Structures are given as C-alpha cells and as structure tokens.
Amino acid sequence: MKTTYSRITPYQTKDGSLIRExxxxxxxxxxxxxxxxxxxxxxxxxxxxxxxxxxxxYHITSGEGxxxxxxxxxxxxxxxxxxxxxxTPHKIRNSKKSPLVILCCCAPxxxxxxxxxxx
Length: 119
What we know:
- The chain is mostly beta strands.
- The chain has a domain at about 55-105: Jelly Rolls, CATH 2.60.120.10.
- About 0% of the residues lie in helices and about 50% in strands.
- The protein has no helices and eleven strands.
- The chain has strands at about 10, 20-25, 35-40, 50, 55-60, 65-70, 70-75, 80-85, 90-95, 100-105, 115.
- The strands form three sheets. A six-stranded antiparallel beta sheet has the order 1-2-3-10-5-8, with no helix packed on it.
- It is globular and about 35 Å long.
- The N and C termini lie far apart (about 40 Å).
- The model has no long low-confidence stretch (mean pLDDT about 95).
C-alpha cells in the first residue's frame, strides 16, 4: 500500500493543527492505527486537548517549540519523539517563525470524536 503526499488533502483538526492523513482506516486498508503529518504554523499553539482512547506518538521532523504534556513542559526540536498516553492533556507551541512539522501515530486511529478540547 502506498500513499502519494501531493495527493493528500490537508484539513484542520480540533486542536488547530493542519493534518495530512498519510495512512488511516477511513482511506486505507489498515485497522488499528493511523499515521499523519501535523503542521503547527509559525508562532502559534495548538489547543490544550486530550484523547480518551488513543495513545499518540509524536516525532518532530522539523522546527522547534514547547510541548505541554500533563504537568510537564519541555522544549522540543527536530529528531525528538514523545509518547502521549490516553487521557493526558497536551498541546504544542511553535516558538519560531517557521512551521513545526510532526509525524503523529495514533492507536486506535485518530478521530474527532475521541478528541476533547480543554481550553
């Protein structure tokens, strides 16, 4: 199974980031996870949110900023990976003038219904 990046239409998620679903059960022959690219625009922040069921892995592919994960706050940059357990409030702030790009893996797959905005 192959996806072609240029053919994927991005959309805005509930947290405010721009998403491209690279692999998702709604469009591909997979069942238990999803893989997406998220872009947090320059000098912006996603909404504080949590997922009731999904565990997420973020891998920062370019840019830098700050991660808010539960009670922790720490800097992030290209090459960093972060595990976000279900029910854990989180958000990302892009502190630079260039986009912050993240690969996001969710299991079970991402859904708007599983996302609760907290701010």
